[in-house]
Amino acid sequence: MPVTLKELAARAQVHPSTVSRVANNDPGLRIAATTRTRIEALLRETEYRPNGVARGLKLRQTLVLAVVIPDITNPFFAALFRGIEDGATPRGYQVLLCNTDGIPERQRAHLHSLAARRVDGVILASTFLKDPAVRWLRHQRTPYVLVNRFSEDGVDPFVGSDDVMGATLATQHLIGLGHVRIGHLAGQPTVSTGVLRRKGYQAALAEAGITADPDLVVESGFVEEGGAQAMDQLLSVRQPPTAVFAVTDMTAVGAYGAARKRGLRIPEDLAIVGYNDIPLASRLIPGLTTVHVPIHEFGSAAARMLLEQIETGVLTPRRVVFAPQLVVRGSSQAGADEQLVGRPAQRSPAE
Amino acid sequence: MPVTLKELAARAQVHPSTVSRVANNDPGLRIAATTRTRIEALLRETEYRPNGVARGLKLRQTLVLAVVIPDITNPFFAALFRGIEDGATPRGYQVLLCNTDGIPERQRAHLHSLAARRVDGVILASTFLKDPAVRWLRHQRTPYVLVNRFSEDGVDPFVGSDDVMGATLATQHLIGLGHVRIGHLAGQPTVSTGVLRRKGYQAALAEAGITADPDLVVESGFVEEGGAQAMDQLLSVRQPPTAVFAVTDMTAVGAYGAARKRGLRIPEDLAIVGYNDIPLASRLIPGLTTVHVPIHEFGSAAARMLLEQIETGVLTPRRVVFAPQLVVRGSSQAGADEQLVGRPAQRSPAE
DNA sequence: TTGCGGTGAACAAACGATTGCCCTATGTTA
DNA sequence: TAACATAGGGCAATCGTTTGTTCACCGCAA
């Protein structure tokens, strides 16, 4: 059992409040040097650390943040979490991680628990358009930041990338390679990234004077399995695409599988472009051409915004939007894989 | 600001303790039906949830667990975390995630913070042999469980696999394929998995009457970059191995890169076997032959053990050791990749 | 009328820290 | 010598719950 103020006070023959002031280095404290020394020795000897729970109750701050995401086993969210933790830990905060598997009810349940625990703030990366949970957060006056996806355009603190621009870049790249029948593995229309990336895809086609074929857009969701199914469907139309833009890298991974199963060569028979540039993208064979976004910085920026909001009560700027960048690899352009050489090494993981 | 007991009590014209008892459904409570109804209506109307911090102070339990790992972006730990959360959430616990990057000082700092926060228990997956942090946990009487690695043989609550057996299986597999010069990308001798897997490797060689060549064992650590460097070194010896057993899958991924850079074909020129069977293993080309361990179950078993310890004060059994199983894929045996067909789908991730 | 048992709730003491205010010596000044 | 600063700490309220104990009241029986 860790030592308490009261016990220390008894041992030092002083009042607990005095020990507290010494421990907290109260600036306005007048105290005899000998007393201070005696108390400090005791503090060191017992390795006293104030009970965080009691402190939280009194000071109304827990020094805990929460991160709510669909699934940490998705490399995108793992990298995001690292960014958040790296931003929060140096400032004394620790981070609760909540996986929702994309199920609104689980998200709701987690948020309610988090509110009951009085976490100081929430970073939410699993929101969808018109998400009632976000309205609830607003109403609760819980500090929060949305990441990657937003719920209502422009009203919430947000960190993400310019999805329309990223999708446009990706599609223009395929157009530039001479593709005309370009498919899209699309995210759900209930999610901002799904909507905006589809919009960017369509904008690029329109700009190039290519008439959009509705058969070439298939909803895949954001994960591997959906990507495989949707790709399979795309390859079954009477005149299949020669290239696809997948709404996320994981979706593209699914597409790889589906293409390979049909004996298609990438990129000769089918060019593929993804979105996010997760670590896995460069390890695929061929490497996945994708839209790079600074995932780790999403996290650290979100943490910074959240902490600013918590500590100062105000927030400026309210939105951080990174410009995405195309990374060309072998999945769209044969022989392009050497562009990988010299990319910065990843943060070192360890078993 | 959420509503408090005191406010509710004022509105219901009763004492706070009465509201508390109604909210907690105190079995021994005698109360007039009308009063109870009035209070219950108020509880629902205000969506009252007791302040978890105050509750934690009074009850001396926070309903928070902590997971301490090297790095969540390593797929092994991501899967492990899911297992833990899936075991903890249904029982009302939420989980703090702490990344140490394998740095003892960061681990120490996190554990101190966690103790100050009075987390109910800790799951530690980043320990090493004779880890002072584990001794500290014991001394603090903080409930804890070690996962995957242990600190001192047999003394701590532990969940993991039989590393010697797994390594033996892997090596025997290579021997069975006719390999004689078999290398080992080894973990550090300061970590239990490093020591035991090396021991299993050596045992298999000895049993087959193959004399161990010290040049064929190179310390790689547990991550990709180390694997690449160590593999490079192995391929530089005067008579390079025709097969290697890598201490983890991530190390094997590094080996893939190194081999490919030299133009070696896998498995024809170099057979590779890994350990852990992370999701990435089956997506590599060729698929990575590896020692399968139930990562998700590591997590849920650890959570169960920890909760038992927390809630009952005792722990039985103290050790859960899973028997590992070899999964043969194309990295050791050409044409073996079809053994992948029909493997259970992964848990659905989402962007 | 007194006593008693049962109802229905209030009281109050924790849990461990923080912090504004008060109190008592002692020395200083007028 | 009376008034007053100042130094050095103690007091007590507070954060929001939980829970063992006490209390007031009512009806009923003796």
Keywords:
homodimer, 351 residues, alpha/beta, 6-stranded mixed beta sheet, 12 helices, 42% helix, disordered C terminus, DNA-binding
Overall average residue pLDDT of chain A: 93
> How would you classify the helix and strand content of chain A by structural class?
alpha/beta
Largest interface: A-B, 72 and 71 residues
User: Strand order across the biggest sheet of chain A?
Assistant: 2-1-3-4-5-11
* Radius of gyration of chain A, whole Å: 26 Å
Please give the oligomerization state of what you see.
Answer: homodimer
Number of helices of chain A: 12
Distance between the termini of chain A: 32 Å
- Helicity of chain A, in percent? 40-55%
Proportion of beta-strand residues of chain A: 15-25%
Poorly predicted parts of chain A = 338-351
Shape field of chain A: elongated
Written as H for each helix and E for each strand, in order along the chain, the element string of chain A is HHHHEHEHEHEEHEHEHEHEEHEE
The beta-strand count of chain A equals 12
| Largest sheet geometry of chain A | 6 strands, parallel
Task: Tell me about this structure.
2 copies of one chain form a homodimer. Chain A is built from 12 helices and 12 strands. By secondary structure, the first copy, chain A, is of the alpha/beta class. Chain A has a 6-stranded parallel β-sheet with strand order 2-1-3-4-5-11, with helices on both faces. Chain A has a 6-stranded mixed β-sheet with strand order 7-6-8-9-10-12, with helices on both faces. In chain A, α5 (75-88) links the parallel β1 and β2 (94-99). The first copy, chain A, is elongated. Mean pLDDT of chain A is 93; it is low at 338-351. The interface between A and B is large, with 72 and 71 residues. The structure holds a DNA duplex (30 and 30 nucleotides).
